[in-house]
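> @MW can you paste both from yesterday?
MW: sure, first one:
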Amino acid sequence: MNILGKMKHSAGLFVIGVAVWLSGQAVYAANTQDVSGTARYDYAYQVLELVNQERAAVGAVPLSMDADLLNAAMMRAAETEVSFSHTRPNGEDCFTASDKMYGENIAWGYSTPRDVMKGWMTSQGHKTNILNGGYETIGIGCLVTKKGTYWVQCFGYDDLTAITQPANATIAYRVAKDTSTTTSLIDGSQVEATTEQEETTEETTEKSVTVANVSGLKVTAAKKKLILNWKRGIGIDGYQIQISPNKNFKGKKTYKVETNTTSKVITKYKGKRLKSGKKYYVRVRTYLKLDKMVYGNWKTVSKKVK
């Protein structure tokens, strides 16, 4: 697995003539700016097909469109009209758009999926994101506004929130320009996960294969870090690890490690050092890569950091 050294990575594609200026669209207040346009989900899925063609050529697993990342990518497309940057208009980095996001490509000025993919694939940073073998999920935003066509790819590897292709739609965002507020959808709706019936069908298919659960899990608290150890599993492809300060794992941070690994040291949660005296919840499960990812059962431990 190679998630760019497990660091979040962003790459912006700048084209000749690109400049950052105030949009001609409505300004609602000093700290927000409205951006509206057409969400081209058909283009997003055409980009997905091209991405997976490129990944297949190098032996990388295909990416699946994730509902959460798709919503984040469309929102980021609106934000890049206000500020064409991996820094959001409110000053935060792009990864705050979604907890499931670990890589970002952006582009502006390309009119078709094939053109924007050609641009990304001829730029090493963007190409690295697209071909990264550790990624498993993606969200692709394509927003056509009065200023042009804005493209965003958000990459991830957390649990997939499956989705079927939505119809193109007119949408509008109120883009936050400082941290006193957050970017919000003011017209249109976010895409939703597949129906319960579809999810149940997928779950039944996956459960036809049994995966050995993680065994011997031990979590040791140390100074501002947690040390995880477990016994090596047989017949699996790796382990998924999650950490959160919440018992229900809301706001979780997810890691994946390969099958020959039997330990993990966690020193940070969402980019910040673990806090002394704070309790964190950690869980680990095995996984197997088939046509779909198949997971074992979670083993959960809570520990207070020293």
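MW: second:
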Amino acid sequence: MAALDVKEREIPESPLVLVNTWSKFAVKKVDRDTRFRWYHTNIFTRWLPSTNQTVILAFDFDPPLKERFLGAVMKPNEGWLNDPFWVYPHLVEQIALAQEPSVWAIRDHVRLAETEVKPEGRPQPDYRRLHDIARHAIHVNETLDVALQNLEHILMQHESYINSKDNVSPASEDIHLRLQSWQSFIINLRSRSISNEKRLQNEIQLAFNTVAQHDASVTLEIGRATQLDSATMKTIAFVTLTFLPPTFICAIFSMSFFDFGGDSGWTMSNKFWIYWVFAIPTTIFTTLVWTYWPDIRSMLFSKNEQT
């Protein structure tokens, strides 16, 4: 995401020393509609101390960074040209100004999720959108982290350059202060970006817990309804068992095996045993089928699958 390399090279057969620097930054621009774009900057500079000339090679610059950076370095402060790091305040400024809209765009998305009106009934969070915002927030944090690391390296190299000089020019001090100022600015952006990510994770967790709470309440209502149905079934079973013996007795005495009319009074047929011959085996068969029906069903299904 970012890198910095500083080298001093001596010109053969000359007391002059060239200062070469190379740096690379990356910025993820996030819009308010969650669209994004990556911006890359590659800068190579060669500073000639004899003439205070600086050769700048810029690669992979995309608008609008390209126009703003070129506009700054084409009209430099002439007092800064005697410092090999004079390009970097302008570069870091453009990086910081490109990072700031992304941080606030993430903040706007997070705020929208926080203030979103919850619908009636079961919540329907847009987890895909929340995931995309979280991914952008992680990338923005990453670019800010590496930008700070790169800026710390620039400050360290610039301080080393200043300490190597007997007399520190006001321009070098001004450049160093400007770099420190933008370092503080990026640190503040980083703090805001960390806050955005934490708030977003809080919203994702809240959405998950809200759905889980709603599902738990629905499950509780289903459990209560099942409990009421169970109580009703118990009542029905109790009533059934209460009337079952009298019903059985009525069914027995209502059969044609019994005769309550005529002058002979109450008589019973000598063929009553036929009822028990059919009733007892049928009851036993029904009980056995009900007991072993799961095994019978599994055997039938296994045969069908084999065929």
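> thanks! Strands lie at 3-10, 17-30, 36-48, 53-59, 258-259, 267-268.
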